[in-house]
Amino acid sequence: MSSTLQRQIQQFYDASSGLWEQVWGEHMHHGYYGPLGREKKGRRQAQIDLIDELLNWGNVQHAENILDVGCGIGGSSLDLAQRFGAQVQGITLSPVQAARGTERAKETGLEAEVEFQVADALDMPFADNCFDFIWSLESGEHLPDKQKFLAECYRVLKPGGTFLMATWCHRPITPATGELTVDEKQHLEQIYQVYCLPYVISLPEYAAIARELSFADIRTDDWSDAVAPFWDIVIDSAFEPQALIGLLKSGWGTVQAALSLGLMSRGYRRGLIRFGVLSAQKPSSITL
């Protein structure tokens, strides 16, 4: 990852994570509003439901050593440690997030089970074959080399282990839909600039990369309808008094992101932005 992009991502989350926790809590990801996105629920519950639905969809019933790639302030890491009684490593580019995750682990009595550190997902500081479950919830979109990201996950995953990812994507490119239009590309570029993204790819492209890397039992699904209401709810929350005060204190990057929330909402409505989920296993043995 280039030092410039890495610094931009770090600064964005260093500046915005405290405000997000203040307004939304410890989970820094979409909420789940039912398969068609029509269920009404509190925003915190919607985010917990997304974790539940992903684990159920991925058929993850047991894990002992978990890697949370793009851990934020530790919402998923602590949840997974409690669910499975597992050891969890969380990595992020943000020192502020890693420090807050460590604080939250101590607050919840999980400091012996959960560890947070600053690390690059394209060059992870872990040995081969050391995690039986890798969880990546909305971090792939930040990475400038999608193949290397999945290759690193494959490397550190134990044979027989499970990789489960949810990530921002753009619509699939098919003969029926055609290539991305100039207008669609411009819309994506605006999102990239605001949220420190190098680019996003389609869910079928992620599946193709996973196949090339020898992942097995690859499954994908498009959950765009289920999560799309999230962005309008975030927009509404930005007008709450504590959010407005926090925005004024958090710097221009966070203010710009708040002013640009409609980019994501419109992206979902036009079918350009997709919420892709992918599950795969590292084969227990390799047949030559």
Automatic annotation (TrEMBL):
Family: Belongs to the class I-like SAM-binding methyltransferase superfamily. gTMT family.
Organism per entry: Coleofasciculus chthonoplastes PCC 7420
GO biological process entries: methylation
Enzyme class, broadest EC rank: transferase
UniProt GO MF annotations: cyclopropane-fatty-acyl-phospholipid synthase activity
Residue span of region SAM motif I: 66-75
Recorded superkingdom: Bacteria
Residues annotated as domain Methyltransferase type: 67-164
Record region (SAM motif III): 156-165
KW Acyltransferase (keyword) present: no
Protein name (Swiss-Prot/TrEMBL): Cyclopropane-fatty-acyl-phospholipid synthase superfamily
E.C. no: 2.1.1.79
InterPro entries reported for this sequence: Erg6_SMT_methyltransf, Methyltransf_11, PiNMT-like, SAM-dependent_MTases_sf
